[in-house]
Predict the 3D structure of the following.
Amino acid sequence: MFQGSMVAIVTPMHEDGSVDNKSLEALLEFHLDSGTDAIVIAGTTGESATLDEKEHCKLIADTVAMVERKIPVIAGTGANSTREAIELTGCAKTGGADACLLVTPYYNKPTQEGLYQHYKMIAESVAIPQILYNVPGRTACDMSNETTERLADISNIVGIKDATGDLDRGEDLIKRLGDRMEVYSGDDGTTLELIRRGARGGISVTANVAPAKMHKMCAAALAGDFEAAAAINEFLLPLHSNLFLEANPIPVKWAVQEMGMITSGIRLPLTPLAEQYHQPLRDAMITAGVL
């Protein structure tokens, strides 16, 4: 249903932390011009954890309106409360999103059966395509491949963003799911190799900074031209690592600001990128050809 380079886009903010819609519109135009294959709005990189429900719903609807159906909009609607996740997912459907991305419930550490029931209830409650999102390093909750395989039988659960960074586990997931669900990389450093093993693309932080190269790399890999994809990815490798010098999205917001596309607005408890990391990230951006 979705494939290629899907940007987990930052949420531009004014210095006071309010959402900057003018900069958002310019960012979206930048991605449309750069070949980005889908916009993932209000995800982890979009500081979803600090958005209230009204802001969250408005951000999704505004993005859909700005993109004008030129590429898909996938809305982050996960929560550690099943009820809240259903409300946000319903809001995304009303706002016109093409699909929703639902992170595993963080902090409360559900069992595998709890995860299955959580996702099953959301899917049954809101008739919109849904993509699961497993990022145990961030949520302290790891959804097993077996649980994901169970969820593949639910018709509107169409994919999973695997951000474990474990290629063998990702390959096992791809084999288990077959044509019932798509697998997308959620780890930029291993996206190329996971596509080689059968993934359909990546939901990317790096694409915020180098969208054209990420699009071309994913397109080449999906076409089976792994030599060309590897040549492009070589320029991106320093970004893949340096965009995580501090917690995401601290470095990527600094990088997009360095490109002159947003201001330094970021919401507490996140703070601006520490001075010691400015030059390493700047160097990575120069290597990638974006500065």
Observations:
- The mean pLDDT is 98.
- The first strand starts at residue 4 and ends at 8.
- The longest helix spans residues 226-242.
- The chain has twelve helices and eight strands.
